[in-house]
Amino acid sequence: MAGPLEGIRIIDFTRLYPGPFGAQLLGDLGAEVIKLENKDSPDYIRFFPPVFNKEGAGYMAVNRNKKSFAIDTRSDEGKELFFRLVEKSDVVMEQFRPGVIDSMGLGYEKANLRNPKIIYCSITGFGQTGPYSQVPGHDMNYMGLAGITDVIGVKGGDPVIPGIQVADVAGGGLMAVIGILSALMARQKTGKGQEVDVSMFDGILPFMGMLYSNYLAGGGLPKRGDSFLNGGLLCYDIYKTKDDKYITLGALEQKFWERVCELIGKEEWKDKQYAQEDEKEAIVVELKEIILGKTRDEWIEIFRGEESMTEAVLTIDEVEKDPHALARDMIIEMDHPTEGKVKGIGIPIKFSDTEAKEIKPPPILGQHNEEILRLTGHSDEEINDLRKRGVII
Fold first, then answer.
1. How far apart are CA 191 and CA 183, in angstroms?
2. What is the DSSP letter of 48?
């Protein structure tokens, strides 16, 4: 069955993680995504270790459901191939620093002349405007400047690196998808394309929305390990178990906390859910000792099905086997031409009528060159000539 975005063609001229992830999600939803790479300097995440056989694990993670178009984007002929593809497409995604794509001669203004309906999404660290627009950065830089890193860590400790790419995925990839889908809806009304400016810094600031609102309301600056949802409550924290594993306790609501107290044999704590200072510390010491008395799985056996808001902290290999993740098709397997059977994370959005079940593996560099060039009107003779002259591979 076709996905909900069937009929939408997207040129993915991004690299590394944010743009490729967003483009992959659009491909998962049924769009035809063409991964455009310079044939002589392709997306270098292809080569980042560890590698499966020939392709890097990072590349395999965010480039499924795409076709590969590898050309010489620096040559005049390569640029013309790009614009001929723009004429046949709905969206361009790029991820260069502001001004770079224009200096390459492949920017929005020229693309718009060739296709006034084109939607041109640019993903950058700080956006197309503002004093930081030309400043390079990575995920942890944006997280730090957004105030997020300052609230991650244990009480009295230093800030810690989150360990996952929040700005790349949420601030870049997901915001790009929202922007592109919104622009496609607007085009249905106006008949015109437009630029979409996605800043990863802008995109992760909403993660601070609740804390910022609390601050404005007089709640003071949030502190590591001492705020409402980062360790400041004994009923919302992570606890170590007998086997050096962990469980998450998220019993914010009174009824859930009361059930936890019943299950651990501490009914006298039922009204101590939001205890603070010395009273809280005393309860936490005892609660930690109680949780250390059983293994993680023993506690989950006790808590599961009891509406206690308690779950296990799983490792990646355990997530891979988790029955719920498997039942939701969130662990998938692909047959790749050079890598064999490769597992990955599944499609996170489900549809009742337009569920796209087919998942195609990430493409080999230039795998779909001929197919795409035929789409743009090139004959077999012209394609062979372009290959002989090194414009394509």
1. 11
2. P
What confidence tier does 228 reach under pLDDT thresholds 50, 70, 90?
A: confident
Is 141 a residue whose pLDDT tops 90? Answer: yes
User: For residue 231, what are its two tokens?
Assistant: 């360790």
42 Cβ contact partners less than 8 Å away, ≥ 6 residues apart: 70, 365
From CA 149, how far away is CA 157, in angstroms rounded? Answer: 12
Give the pLDDT confidence score for residue 1 in this predicted structure: 63
Structure tokens belonging to residue 55: 């392709």
Asked if residue 273 lies in contact with residue 254, where contact means CB atoms within 8 angstroms, the answer is yes
CA–CA dist 341, 361 (Å, integer): 10
- Quickly tell me which residue has 């044999």 as its tokens: 265
Tokens 């614009």 belong to 83
In this structure, how many other beta carbons lie within 10 angstroms of the beta carbon of residue 162? 14
End-to-end CA distance of the chain: 33
* Helices 18-28/175-190 angle, 10° precision: 60
What SS3 class is residue 10?
strand
Question: pTM here?
Answer: 0.94
- Whether 102 is catalytic is no
Catalytic residue (one of 12, 43, 90, 168): 168
Tell me how crowded residue 222 is: count the other CB atoms within 10 A of its CB. Answer: 20
Predicted confidence at residue 174, as pLDDT, reads 98
The amino acid that residue 209 corresponds to is G
Amino acid identity of 69? F
Over residues 4-49, the pLDDT tens digits come to: 999 999 999 999 999 999 999 999 999 999 999 999 999 999 999 9
Backbone angles phi, psi at 225, to 5 degrees: 70, 10
Task: Report the candidate in 92, 84, 124 with the shortest Cα–Cα distance to residue 108.
Answer: 92
* Average per-residue pLDDT for the chain: 96
**Domains plus CATH for the chain?**
9-206+331-388 (3.40.50.10540), 246-312 (no CATH)
Instruction: For residue 73, give both structure tokens.
Output: 């984007």
Q: What are the structure tokens assigned to 82, written together?
A: 């790009």
pLDDT tens column, 53-111: 899 999 999 999 999 999 999 999 999 999 999 999 999 999 999 999 999 999 999 99
- Residue 266 makes CB contacts below 8 A (sequence gap 6+) with 286, 287, 290
